[in-house]
Amino acid sequence: MQLARDLQKSLWHHGRPLVEPGAPQKLSRIVPGGELRGRVAGRAVDEATDEAYLVLEGTDGVVHFVPETPEMARARGERHLEVGRVVTLRGRGLDGKGNAGTRVEVLDHGRLEELRAVREPATILDLEAVRAVRARGDAPALVPTRSGFFARFREAVRSRLPLLAERGLVGESALEHGATDRRRLVLVATAEERIELAMKVRERRPLALSEAQRLGVKELVHAAPESGRIYRGRVVAMAEDEAGARYVVLDTGRFVTAIPATGQTFERGRELRARSRMVESPAEGRRVLAWQIDDLEQERRRGRERER
Questions:
Q1: What pLDDT band is residue 59 in, cutting at 50, 70 and 90?
Q2: Model pLDDT, residue 143
Q3: Which residues are within 8 A (CB) of 243 and not within 5 positions of it... i.e. 6 or more apart?
Q4: Final residue belonging to a domain, choices 112, 140, 174
């Protein structure tokens, strides 16, 4: 009862509701394979235990109270869980330990008004639209009895249909005859895959190596693990392999080349030079191969500044 009172207090600010009044409410824990999506409405604290909860206005029409995890706290510090941002919380299992071994991935999609302004099918609105078309032959129905984020999100999803049709991702089937004649919407087979890839690029999330290869439209090869190798090219994407190792993928001419880039991030289109050399590793007690990656555009800018 104390927890319920504390959480209820978090739904109001200076006498004004932070979420849709009367919306269903639920205490939701992220489990492996689970996913929640919605608008960040605020943060609540259980005064008895000091446990923090994320208040999320879900795209399912429910206000979720989600216990904060270390990953969510880190995302908050990086400003990915600010009030008003549309996010997805995704549970990843660790070592088969069930909920105790869950890592929560936080995907920050941006604010709803920003998403509506994107003129390419590269947003969570587009993904929700094509998934609805696949499931029911139409975009999600509007709910006149609801207000707040839930209603605005559904309307925003429906508003993406003309853009999806213009880009050739959604079309109309032959006229169905029945009680009410209507045309069902149909998807291009690769619509979801193409939108998910475009979303990752727009949101600057690492791709899988296979996705980076599709984006680069060339065969992907790994940088040769030899000292003295040099690669030069423009960034196609940041990528990760199945083990979570991080790479920068460069367009190096005939191929796109994946180069180890632990702890580094580079913007797409930047011109880089990567050089390999052997260095001492105190942690491993031996010499290991390391990659030095230089931003050539920054080097040229510094050179021009020195000449002045």
A1: very high
A2: 84
A3: none
A4: 112
